[in-house]
């Protein structure tokens, strides 16, 4: 069922004015994301017609934009990705760690997203790899899945990497499995110090190579002495590396991954109202946990904050490391199972909450019928059309518009 309010509604109603007001500052990637979300599941992208094999009811379903920033398009992608990961889980504890950039570095990260986000991934992965390989801590080769998030609950820029790490790995010689201690993976104070050093050293190297960009109030950092002074306080402060309690089992790992891997800056379910040029949405203040709060932003500010999180074209926000790295993953996992003396597994047919088979074009189930619960069958395809969207009408994104009279559609 379509939510009462969607990010697409905000874009359709206020996107044109935002593009006009910020024409000199909007990048190509941001414009493409806006256009994709506005067109998602509308006649502009074409679609198909379904008919219930029971009662004969007709329904039209428009295609999805499939943009990775679109709140409506990530469910099917998450399910497919999850199915591929199920066979890779090992019967060992898994740990969740979060590596966060300090606030002082976030503006630098925004100006050089491709480089700094990549450096954040590398510093986090190298920190885990080096500390885990040290016999004083674990002495093993680990495997990790890392996911980049760039937002907080209030949509401000807040780059951090979530890592899901197996609690152990093959020994350095590959001859035995080394398990971590019960409910303890690696010492967080040691992780913090190494993460800080690796990231700052990498950032300094990028500066020395002339790869960083600075704008507005950071323009002075093009000067080497100014840049060194800017980083100096960061070498003395504590960096945020957070280690959560281990997951209860592989299924809990999958449930977590399903929620986090394909998440976007804000889900449609958090939106409450779009009225008088303002957007109201729910958010959690983690500094004061408790009942979710409600934030009100102008539509312009809401769009600005949403677009802060558009990733560079082609940037991979989910990455695999160690024995889960893409190059030799199958062979590495087979070796891990051999060391653990467990049989190889096949991907199960079930997915998150056992969703129904979905149409490749829309990612939506072709059944059941919204009227009688019968199965909906594909009967015709719809070509793309240019549909002008009235600035005050935001109801064209319905993914399943119902038409009780078949002749209305087919004539």
The gyration radius over C-alpha positions equals 24 Å
CATH class of the domain at 88-265 and 309-340: Alpha Beta
Per DSSP, the total helix count is 11
Q: What string, H for helix and E for strand, traces the elements in order? A: HHEEHEHHEEEEHHEHEEEHEHEEH
Shape: globular
Instruction: Supply the CATH architecture of the domain at 88-265 and 309-340.
Output: 3-Layer(aba) Sandwich
Structural class: alpha+beta
Helix content: 25-40%
pLDDT averaged over residues:
85
**Poorly predicted regions:** 347-366, 389-411
Give a summary of the structure in a few sentences:
With about 400 residues, the chain is an alpha+beta fold. It has helices at about 5-20, 30-40, 75-85, 105-110, 115-135, 190-210, 225-230, 250-260, 300-305, 330-340, 405-410; strands at about 45-50, 60, 95-100, 145-150, 155-165, 170, 175-180, 240-245, 270-275, 280-285, 295-300, 320, 375-380, 400-405.
Task: Explain what this protein looks like in three dimensions.
By secondary structure, the protein is of the alpha+beta class. The protein has a domain at 88-265 and 309-340: Replication Protein E1, Chain: A, CATH 3.40.1310. The protein has 11 helices and 14 strands. The protein has helices spanning 7-21, 28-39, 74-86, 106-111, 113-133, 188-208, 224-231, 250-260, 299-307, 329-340, 406-410, and strands at 47-52, 58-62, 94-100, 143-151, 157-166, 168-170, 177-179, 241-243, 271-275, 278-283, 293-298, 318-322, 376-382, 401-403. Strands 8-3-5-4-12 form a 5-stranded antiparallel β-sheet, sandwiched between helices. A 4-stranded antiparallel β-sheet has the order 13-1-2-14. Helix 1 (7-21) runs antiparallel to helix 2, helix 5 (113-133) crosses helix 6 and helix 6 (188-208) packs antiparallel against helix 7 (224-231). It starts with 6 loop residues before the first helix and ends with a helix.
């Amino acid at each position: 069922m379509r939510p009462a309010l969607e990010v697409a509604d905000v874009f359709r109603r206020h996107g044109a004015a935002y593009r006009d007001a910020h024409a000199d500052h909007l990048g190509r990637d941001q414009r493409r994301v806006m256009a994709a979300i506005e067109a998602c599941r509308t006649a502009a992208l074409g679609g198909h017609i379904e008919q219930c094999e029971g009662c004969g009811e007709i329904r039209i379903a428009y295609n999805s934009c499939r943009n990775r920033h679109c709140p409506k398009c990530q469910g099917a992608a998450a399910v497919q990705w999850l199915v591929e990961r199920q066979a890779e889980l090992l019967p060992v504890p898994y740990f969740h760690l979060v590596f966060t950039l300090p606030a002082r570095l976030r503006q630098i990260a925004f100006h050089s997203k491709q480089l700094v986000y990549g450096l954040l991934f590398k510093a986090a992965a190298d920190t885990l790899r080096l500390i885990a390989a040290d016999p004083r801590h674990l002495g093993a080769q680990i495997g990790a899945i890392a996911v980049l998030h760039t937002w907080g609950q209030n949509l401000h820029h807040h780059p951090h990497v979530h890592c899901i790490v197996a609690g152990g790995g093959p020994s350095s010689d590959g001859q035995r499995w080394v398990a971590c201690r019960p409910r303890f993976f690696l010492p967080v104070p040691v992780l913090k110090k190494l993460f800080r050093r690796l990231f700052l050293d990498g950032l300094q190297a990028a500066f020395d190579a002339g790869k960083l960009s600075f704008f507005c109030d950071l323009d002075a950092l093009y000067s080497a002495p100014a840049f060194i002074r800017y980083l100096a306080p960061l070498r003395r402060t504590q960096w945020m590396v957070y280690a959560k309690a281990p997951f209860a089992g592989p299924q809990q790992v999958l449930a977590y991954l399903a929620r986090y891997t394909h998440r976007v800056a804000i889900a449609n379910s958090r939106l409450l109202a779009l009225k008088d040029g303002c957007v109201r949405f729910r958010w959690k203040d983690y500094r004061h946990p408790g009942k979710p709060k409600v934030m009100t932003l102008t539509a312009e500010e809401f769009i600005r904050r949403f677009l802060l999180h558009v990733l560079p074209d082609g940037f991979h926000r989910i990455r695999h490391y160690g024995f889960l790295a893409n190059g030799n993953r199958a062979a590495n996992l087979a070796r891990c199972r051999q060391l653990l003396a467990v049989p190889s597994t096949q991907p199960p047919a079930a997915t998150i909450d056992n969703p129904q088979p979905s149409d490749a074009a829309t990612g939506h189930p072709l059944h059941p019928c919204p009227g009688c619960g019968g199965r909906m069958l594909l009967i015709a395809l719809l070509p793309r059309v240019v549909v002008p969207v009235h600035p005050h009408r935001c109801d064209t994104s319905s993914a399943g518009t119902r038409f009780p009279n078949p002749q209305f559609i087919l004539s």
